[in-house]
């Protein structure tokens, strides 16, 4: 089970919009039921990141992350999504790296 951290400024509004596109991408590529998404504020991302396989954020990457960062702005805007989609799909195929599976 992949654990995905999804962050925006408030932890709700823009990450919810990006979540819809992210879930669609994952489900269309056969990952339905093989991931869980936790939404948070960007200010919480660095502290929480050690427990997740990767972070998708609708803002710039915070410093000191414990997991890979994916630019989530394309998921929010619905434009130029290719590079972020490829990165997410690649991370879904890498072994889990969060603390729960080490």
UniProtKB/TrEMBL annotation:
Keywords: Transferase. Residues 3-58 form the Phosphotransferase system EIIB component type 2/3 domain. GO terms for biological process: phosphoenolpyruvate-dependent sugar phosphotransferase system. CDD domains: PTS_IIB_galactitol. The keyword Transferase applies. InterPro entries: PTS_EIIB-like_sf, PTS_EIIB_2/3. One of its GO terms (molecular function) is protein-N(PI)-phosphohistidine-sugar phosphotransferase activity. Signal peptide: none annotated. The keyword Glycoprotein does not apply. It comes from the Bacteria. This is PTS galactitol transporter subunit IIB. It comes from Muricaecibacterium torontonense.
């Amino acid at each position: 089970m992949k654990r995905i951290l999804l962050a925006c400024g408030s932890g709700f509004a823009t990450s919810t919009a990006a979540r819809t596109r992210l879930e669609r991408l994952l489900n269309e590529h056969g990952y339905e039921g093989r991931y869980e998404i936790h939404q948070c504020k960007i200010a919480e991302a660095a502290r929480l990141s050690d427990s997740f396989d990767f972070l998708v954020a609708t803002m710039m990457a915070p410093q000191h992350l414990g997991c890979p960062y994916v630019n989530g702005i394309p998921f929010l805007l619905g434009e130029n999504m290719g590079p972020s989609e490829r990165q997410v799909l690649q991370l879904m195929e890498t072994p889990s790296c969060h603390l729960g599976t080490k």
